[in-house]
Amino acid sequence: MRKMLLIPAFGFVAACDTVAPVTGSGFNTPQYQAEREAQLAGQGAAGNPLLPPAISQEQLNAEAGPAPFTTGDSATDIANQTAAALASTSAQPTAPVAVSSNGISNEQDFAAVSSSRSIQDDAALIQQNRQTYEVVAPTAVPQRGSDGQPNIVQYALTTTNPVGTQLYSRAGFNLQAKAQRNCAGYASPDQAQIDFLANGGPQRDRKGLDPDGDGFACGWDPSPFRSAVGN
Predict the structure, then answer these.
(1) Which residues fall within 8 angstroms of residue 183, CB to CB, at 6 or more apart?
(2) Cα-based distances in Å from 209 to 163, 199, 215, 224
(3) What are 137-169's pLDDT values in tens digits?
(4) DSSP one-letter code for 184
(5) CA distance linking residue 37 with residue 30, whole number of Å
(6) Would the pTM count as exceeding 0.70?
(7) Sign of CA dihedral 59, 62, 64, 67
């Protein structure tokens, strides 16, 4: 009876030792794993768009450029490496210099300036500018000449009353109608104010240009001149 029970048990263990075949899709396929191992080993993965192409050590060295200087390099080695680096840089094509076609100066464009003159030329230009430089001493602002007419700007700054506030007495009949008729003969309120001041205003109003007695003829307003000085 014991022998008969042991036989099935050994058969079950043997069945468990059998390795199931590796199956799957995408990243779990045996083909992808093999190509991935080849890529890590530096052999590339030709034909597989999922993996980048392998990069050789020669390509890495070429992109990295010349090796940096070390403490063990001699002066000759450093000079040779520097000359090689300059030669490789000069061999590369340079971008064309933009030339201004609208007459604007290119003095702030290093490439444009360096292509037209050298450092020695710049030094000579600076020296020439220093020799021709002239310091102009400040002078007083000239006084406005007088043409014999009243200065309405000065008059506006000496007054403080608003337009329409009576300061001077006016006598007569139909003063508003008279002022409207006489003011029509002036090209502007400024001209009317000048003539008003020239004929005794603001105390006297011979032509009836200031019917409300505020000192301002034909609706002339001193506010713009006051505001300009205040700002």
Answers:
(1) 189, 192, 209, 217, 218, 219
(2) 14, 11, 9, 21
(3) 888 877 766 667 899 999 999 999 999 999 999
(4) T
(5) 11
(6) no
(7) positive
